[in-house]
Amino acid sequence: MSAMLINGVELSKTIRSKVSLKTQELKNKGITPGLAVIIVGENPASQVYVRNKVKACEEVGFFSSLDKYSSDISESELLVHIEKLNLNPKIHGILVQLPLPEHINSSRVIEAIDPSKDVDGFHISSAGALVKGIPGFWPCTPFGCIKMLESINYDLKGKHAVVIGRSHIVGKPMALMLLDKNATVTICHSATVNLKAITLQADVIVAAVGKINILTKDMVKPGAVVLDVGMNRDSQGKLCGDVDFEGVSEIASYITPVPGGVGPMTITMLLQNTLDSAEKNSN
């Protein structure tokens, strides 16, 4: 393997340490950053994610509340709970764990969150701010990817970045963030013709489609930086990403592993966004 690893676990520790220090500074002023997490139903993966988020809050000194609701809660009831959190001065960030049950309109629920507390960065106001290039909350996973590139002092100016995936949560905001850093950006997706021809031109590749081995060794030019956002299980049940890690590691200059890469950074940037919200409140 020739590629250097971008270690998300270690980078997360560094960022969380800084968040913890700033949290203590706020506490000295009488302000404790507060994050409210809402989960609806019993989705096992969601339960794990939520536990990890609450635990991370405790570790950096945040106040956190976990509101669990049964899967048969009505949309109107959920919206009432969100409005109460909007009005609660102790809460600086509100996170609704997705997916929600089918009878609840996820978009309507997300839009009900006060934009100043949208620490997930999913509100249309946050998306608009990102498009306009003005301050706002960036979605946590692509925000984490940017921090990983910064950690290796990678200058994106003039570089060709290829994003594989066009989701509202990762692909689209990732492309906009890269554009904000002066990269030339290409977005690829399920209807893209000859993906390999495009990725071979890339200086940076972000794979975010949730498909095993969407990016293989023969699709990467020597020296490219590869960020793997995928989270999959192989035939043996082992956790893996979207990238053929072993093969691509022989070609790339830097690569993120799965697990231990982008994953830890997602929750870390959630903490950063919540801290930022609390700091704005203190000013």
**CATH-defined architecture of the largest domain:** 3-Layer(aba) Sandwich
Strand order, largest beta sheet = 1-11-8-7-5-6
Residues in β-strands, percent:
15-25%
How far apart lie the N and C ends? 49 Å
Sheet/helix structural class: alpha/beta
Biggest beta sheet summary: 6 strands, parallel
CATH class of the largest domain: Alpha Beta
Give the low-pLDDT segments: none
Summed over residues and divided by their number, the pLDDT gives a mean of 96
CATH topology of the largest domain: Rossmann fold
How many domain modules?
Answer: 2
- What is the number of strand segments? 11
**If helices are DSSP runs of H or I spanning 4 or more residues, what is the number of helices?**
10
**Helical amount among residues, as a percent range?**
40-55%
